[in-house]
Amino acid sequence: MPVDPQIEAMLAAAPPWPGVRGMDLAALRQAVRDSSVMLPRAEDAPVAEIADRTIAGPGGPLALRVYTPEGTGPFPMVVYCHGGGYVVGDLDTQDMIARALCSWSGVVVVSVDYRLAPEHPFPAAPDDTFAALEWVAAHAAEIGGRADRLALAGDSAGGNLVAAAALRARDRGGPALRALVNIYGSCNYPSEQTASAREYADGPILKQHDINWFYEQYLSDPAREQHDPQAAPVRAASHAGLPPTFVGTAECDPSRDDAELFGAKVAAAGVEVEVKRYPGMVHGFASWVGFLPGARAVLQDAAAFLKRHLES
Q1: What structural domains does the chain harbor?
Q2: Distance CA 142, CA 145 (A)
């Protein structure tokens, strides 16, 4: 199926995107932030309260944003990580996703402002993610949540980070998790060229050489670190014991096949898995939840998955 007509029209009206390689890092971050914060939110995704707070993280103060749904708590909780190739993004750039998951799932969402590469290379981001997960589990009552109803969710690089956190939680005996949501996170290092990587090497939106550049910033020793499950969760020796997992992918995305491979490996380990590919969608499409039907679909599907597993 070709790219969704609404996305095609939007891209045709936008200035050509040069790709990330060769861009000044500060300018890249600002461009991503500027284009993200102007996006509309879903009008039917109200939340009761949003509060920023800071906790002690592995590398110093770690900022979190707590979204509380309407209703009477305590509520189930979801720790959420934004995308951005481990290099760009913050608590504002995927605010629309966090709001939608909070409202449509009826959960407290805690968004994590993990450290970014190249200033803070691997394993800073997964260390921050797991530290946030442990803090949320230990301080559930402070934020109106229930520690016995805890899940993880993320998009793109954030999907990779929460998958890594789920593996670490399994291996360390907690915190106990009821669900994992990965929205187009590859969970793999791009050492092999998949069919989707070949077909969509030139995008739209995300190009294969962009993916390669992000990993150049993120990993200090790719030859060794690409095999670490905290960097590439699909390469874990076993995926048994992970929580029920939802994987949402974009059809027109070079990272699609790797993300679906992660879902297949988790399913092969005997875990309940739901993998859904969204026709005509491109990498990053969930951020367009305010106007794109496909974005609404993936976040509503993810929210329904979370609700089902957190309320049972």
Answers
A1: 5-311 (3.40.50.1820)
A2: 7
